[in-house]
Design a protein that fits this description.
InterPro entries: Acyl_transf_3_dom (IPR002656), Nose-resist-to-fluoxetine_N (IPR006621), O2_lipid_transport_reg (IPR052728). Keywords: Membrane, Signal, Transmembrane, Transmembrane helix. This is Nose resistant-to-fluoxetine protein N-terminal domain-containing protein. Strands 1, 2, 3, 4 and 5 form a five-stranded mixed beta sheet that branches. α14 runs parallel beside α24, α16 runs antiparallel to α17 and α21 packs antiparallel against α24. By secondary structure, the protein is mainly alpha-helical. The chain has 27 helices and five strands. Helices cover about 60% and strands about 5% of the residues. It is globular. It has four domains: about 110 residues, no CATH class; about 60 residues, no CATH class; about 60 residues, no CATH class; about 200 residues, no CATH class. The relative contact order is 0.10.
């Protein structure tokens, strides 16, 4: 009970709080980046490189370029990460090694060419004026600069031109420089002092070979997984020896000795017992929902670098609706969880027994997920960061840093409340909400498991209305957008994700809908509900109409011209319980023979 009390303390005390711990960047060796910097050595190496055309070509070929497909939305040029880090020449008095860096360059900036009085070397100026070819190129550059300024909105240009499409664009460019250099020193020495013409940029990150240090999490992971592997070998050997060599009846084997056996556990994982009280249709519904989640994340995890505008236009089109509307499928799992928590618990115990065994009720649920979640957190904190590498590996390193800082909020299932912007395992927010709903469910379950049905219905109805009304008030106060893809600033999307999408209150309604239908299924556990086929058909039409409407509404709310905050608030408040109710009818119909023989069997 100590764990339960601690959990409730954290849940209610910090439900509206946000932890502002500084996430230390320990995934990469920051000290290594500082130690290699040497201004004098940098100048010496760059002079050597400029005297050797092949070396100059190596650094230039792996480095900065203007992104191709800029007008199609591509603002990223990744250079050649591996080519840059593979530059390693051990010379007689010099260790020449490449360093890959990423810089952020805003398009909306003003450039100016130096005037005559800005030159301190008049001889150099005289030579410059006599170089007609250089003057011609500078003139071309000036004209090109003017065109870029018009396109980026710095100058008005022609009044007939359309609005500048690249205003506010920030280019992410990659440069390959010698190891002891900073980006500013390297680019100034290689080219000329870019700051003198108004060129502005911001350092993003730099990378060197072998810059991922081992931390305590690596050694903990080795110790724990080595111990588990050792137990697995012993347990599997004992199981196979007794089963196939000694021919001992499996019922006589020591269950503790076979608890880590791959043979025994493998059979359990691949065997699904079926009984008269099992809700078999949930297996199909769960499988389809998982497939939808996997496909959706496969598309959303891909970065549209080369055709960002086309990718966004496709994402807001009807052709991609099966992807953009996939976020609703998460509520399928919340609904199923609500159905099962009532249906399975009501068949085992009453209200008083639930209170007496509350610790077992919690442990039974928590221990099913905790070991695998803890293992993933440990791996993300350690070896996942070392598995591969690349120019976009900062996405993985960010998760590694989050896990090393907020691992405890993930294991306590409160990361969606305390640090939603720094999730350790991105998709574990769902597990947190599911566990939180499970922990709070006995408040309603106690009455549901009693003998008086009116108390059960009152508790279920009041619980559902409390969640629905509270979430509706919350949504109307904060005015969130109603889709993960919307024509709004990124800050608004982040606010929607952190304060709505990951928030327990706004996602609990389908869980309570599932609890209500789980109680209905429990009341008719040993009987078949008979209803007129016309009513069953009408219910199917209503259910499919609701799910179809929810599916297609995503297309309208993701369009550029969508601007209806009132509709957004209603959608956020009622769409998820409506989806859960429609699915619950499908479950009910299949269990009681109104789903067709293919759905029932």
């Amino acid at each position: 009970m100590i764990f339960v009390k601690l959990y409730f303390l954290l849940l209610f005390k910090f439900a509206s709080a946000r932890l502002n711990f500084e996430v230390a960047d320990t995934a990469f060796d920051q000290q290594l980046y500082e130690d290699v910097l040497d201004a004098e050595e940098c100048d010496r190496q760059i002079k050597f490189i400029r005297r050797n055309p092949l070396l100059t070509l190596q650094f230039a070929d792996a480095g900065i370029r203007v992104p191709r497909g800029l007008l199609q939305g591509n603002n990223v040029d990744l250079g050649n990460y591996y080519q840059c880090l593979d530059i390693n020449h051990n010379l007689q008095d010099m260790d020449l090694q490449g360093k890959y860096c990423s810089i952020l360059v805003p398009m909306n900036q003003t450039f100016h060419l130096p005037r005559e009085m800005e030159f301190s070397d008049w001889a150099q100026l005289k030579a410059l004026q006599e170089d007609e070819e250089l003057l011609r190129r500078m003139g071309e550059f000036d004209r090109l600069r003017s065109q870029i300024r018009i396109m980026t909105g710095v100058d008005d240009g022609s009044r007939t031109l359309p609005a500048a499409p690249l205003v506010g664009t920030v280019l992410r460019l990659s440069v390959c420089i010698p190891k002891p250099c900073t980006t500013q020193q390297a680019m100034t020495s290689f080219i000329f002092n870019l700051t003198n013409i108004g060129f502005q940029y911001e350092d993003d990150f730099c990378r060197l070979p072998n810059d991922k240090p081992w931390v305590a999490a690596h050694y903990v992971a080795i110790g724990i997984f080595s111990f588990i592997g050792f137990l697995t070998i012993l347990s599997t050997s004992y199981d196979l020896y007794c089963t196939f060599y000694l021919k001992i009846d499996r019922k006589q084997l020591n269950t503790w000795y076979t608890s880590f056996s791959m043979y025994t556990n493998g059979k359990r994982l691949t065997y699904f017992p079926s009984g008269p009280s099992n809700l078999q249709c949930l297996d199909g519904m769960r499988s389809l929902a998982m497939a939808w989640v996997i496909v959706g994340h496969t598309f959303s995890s891909h970065k549209f670098y080369l055709n960002g505008l086309e990718g966004f236009l496709w994402l807001t089109s009807l052709a991609s609706l099966w992807i953009s509307s996939g976020t609703i499928t998460v509520d399928t799992f919340f609904t199923i969880a609500g159905v099962l928590i009532v249906y399975t618990t009501a068949g085992k115990m009453d209200g008083m027994r639930l209170l007496k065994n509350l610790h077992l009720f919690y442990l039974n649920r928590l221990m099913r997920m905790f070991p695998i979640l803890a293992a993933v957190v440990l791996l993300q904190s350690s070896f996942f960061n070392n598995m591969s590498d690349g120019p976009t590996w900062t996405v993985v390193s960010r998760l590694t840093n989050n896990c090393r800082t907020y691992w405890w909020t993930t294991l306590l299932h409160v990361q969606n409340l305390l640090n939603p912007s720094h999730l350790c395992i991105n998709h574990s927010w769902y597990v947190a909400i599911d566990v939180q709903c499970y922990i709070l469910s006995p408040i309603v379950l106690f009455w549901v498991l009693g003998r008086k049905r009116r108390y059960a219905w009152a508790a279920l109805t009041l619980g559902f209305l409390a969640v629905l009304v509270s979430s509706t008030i919350y949504n109307f106060i904060y005015d969130f957008q109603s889709a993960t893809v919307a024509a709004r600033p990124p800050s608004e999307t982040n606010r929607y994700m952190h304060n709505y999408y990951f928030f327990t209150l706004t996602r609990a309604a389908p869980f309570f809908v599932g609890m209500i239908f789980g109680y209905v299924l429990h009341l008719h556990r040993n009987e078949k509900v008979k209803m007129p086929w016309l009513l069953a058909i009408l219910m199917w039409v209503f259910s499919l109409g609701v799910t179809t409407t929810i599916f297609f509404h995503t297309h309208f709310i993701t369009q550029w011209d969508w601007d209806n905050q009132l509709a957004d608030n209603f959608i956020n408040s009622f769409i998820r319980p409506a989806w859960g109710a429609a699915l619950c009818w499908i479950i009910f119909a299949c269990v009681h023979g109104y789903g067709g023989k293919y759905l029932v069997y």
